[in-house]
Amino acid sequence: MPFWSGETLEERLIDLIDPFERRAIDCAAYTLRIGREIYVSPDREIPDPSRHTKRTLAEGEGFTIPPGQFGFLSTAERVKVPDNALAFISIKARQKFSGLINISGFHVDPGYEGALLFSVMNAGPKPLHLAQGQPLFLIWYADLDRLTERKKRPEDGFDGIEPDQINKISGEILSLQSLSDKLRTLEQDIQRQLESQNSKISNLKLLVNIFLTVATAIGGGLIVWAVTEWMGLPPNP
Question: CATH for 6-173?
Answer without folding.
Answer: 2.70.40.10
